Amino acid sequence: MTNQSNLNKTLGLGYVIIFVIANIIGSGVYKKIAPMAAELHSSVWILLAWIVAGIITLFGALSNAEVAGLMADTGGEYVYLKKIYNRFFSFIYGWSLFAVIQTATISSLAYVFAQSLNSIIPLPEVFSSLQQFHIGGIFYPFQDFGIKLTAILLILLLTFLNISGLKSGLLVSKIIMWLVFGGLFIIVVFGWINAGELPSNFLNFSDLSNGSVTISSFFTAMLAAFWAYQGWVSAGYIGGEIKNARHNLPRGIVIGVLLVIAIYILVNITYLALLSIPELELAHTSGNQIAAVEAVRSFWGTAGVFFISLLILLTTLGCTNASILSGARPYFAMSRDRLFFASVGKTNKAHVPGNSLLWQGIWGSVLVLLGTFDQLTDMIVFAVFIFYGATTLGVFILRRKMPNAHRPYKVWGYPIIPAIYILFCVYLIYNTISARPREAMIGTALMLLGIPVYFYLLHKYGKTHEQKNEDDKMEN
Within 10 Å of residue 368's Cβ, how many Cβ atoms? Predict the structure, then answer.
């Protein structure tokens, strides 16, 4: 039985591009410039971090596109890693998606949605007497509980929307994406029309030589940028539902990432033209200000705050929806391989993995209670780059293992481009452990919890014929 059994191939190239963009453009384009300013203290270095992060993301997308074109199937990276390495490593990836990568992405996006809604319509305080209740001094589940409860309700609502059918979820993403494009275009155009006198430190290139920025601080700032670029790989999760996937999937990934890079650079140059570095740093230290809101407030006042809050609401709604839609597919593929609970591998009357969507929604709701936005996003970036690097290494492995296989797309710049990306992943992981040890430790702990689950599933379901063959090869 193949992973895509009972899933319909209905999506063309246009939907793949929409899906890539909808999975990427979320809260990062509005929030992450503020922590980058606090780390780098320079508009030139901030812009350089966005550009370098975009180029590195493109290198990863180019490398991933070769693997996706070679073995496109429902489950994306889970399927690729199983064929490149083995079932255990691919299970750890799939488990990590469920434990932290995909579910924490959904949680953090829903959290920002609720924050934006709160800025338009103040949400009531709930369980205010329990605000200081904590777990180990790290998790404060009842802090801002009104916002968290709203985020949970959004996750569950969108989960049930996607349980009703694939096209229902994609239509929502398509409509919202065009509304978001229009909103960002308005910010860029009217931002420059009303910019007035530029901040004194706007694109001051002398900052490049003053020695205040270290390699570590630059990489730490890029953690924020990488969160904003995170999500492009999700298109691979629906490979079994894409028409002519071996051609349309790699093309859609590359085109989508290039469009997002261009949008991010334009929007962030506009922010830097409207707000000084001290103003951006203040937005970060305040903890409850969003840089994009302050930028639009500077030229449209209260009306601007309502406009940008509504835009953030729409953007995070669209990205949360796309993340929910795509995230459930790997667990569905895992279940079909007896590497996840059997009920997760069933499709419903709408030919979508309803049980997989439901379990993802429940755990994503739990993570809303456990983490803050920045805590969740740093955990995600640390965890995901372990597997991004492994998939890119797979380009080299598959070129040796399957030299004569038909590749609809070959990575441009091979072997330099994938090698640069792998080295970057290694350093980013090392730097995150040094700069964000708590988030790295929590992310690692959640991933390692998958090991006992793996052996439990082996005991419960036994080894498949495929796995026995793999084990025999390893013994020999």
Answer: 25
Q: H-helix or E-strand containing 384?
A: helix 373-401
* Amino acid at position 46, single letter: I
Q: What is the pLDDT of residues 52-98, one digit of tens each?
A: 998 998 898 888 888 877 876 656 788 889 889 988 999 999 898 88
Buried b (16+ CB within 10 A) or exposed e, 29-55: bbbbbbbbbbbbbbbbbbbbbbebbbe
pTM: 0.77
Q: What's the CATH number for 13-475? A: 1.20.1740.10
Chain-centroid distance of CA 30 in Å reads: 15
Q: Please, which residues have CB within 8 angstroms of residue 372's CB and are 6 or more apart in sequence?
A: 111
- DSSP secondary structure of 278-328: HHHHHHHHHSS--HHHHHHHHHHHHHHHHHHHHHHHHHHHHHHHHHHHHHH
pLDDT at site 475: 41
User: DSSP character for 27?
Assistant: S
The 3-state DSSP class for residue 167 equals helix
Cis peptide leading into 415, omega within 30 of 0?
A: yes
Whether residue 436 contacts residue 444, with contact meaning beta carbons closer than 8 Å, is answered with no
Where on the phi/psi map is residue 353: left (φ > 0), alpha (ψ -120 to 50), or beta?
A: beta
| Residue 97 per-residue DSSP state | I
Q: What is the DSSP letter of 340?
A: S
3-class SS letters over 349-376:
CCCCCHHHHHHHHHHHHHHHHHCCHHHH
Q: Rounded to an integer, what distance in angstroms lies between the CA atom of residue 470 and that of residue 398? A: 17
* Residue 369 tokens, joined: 């209670």
The half-sphere exposure of 218 on its side-chain side, counting CA atoms within 13 A, is 17
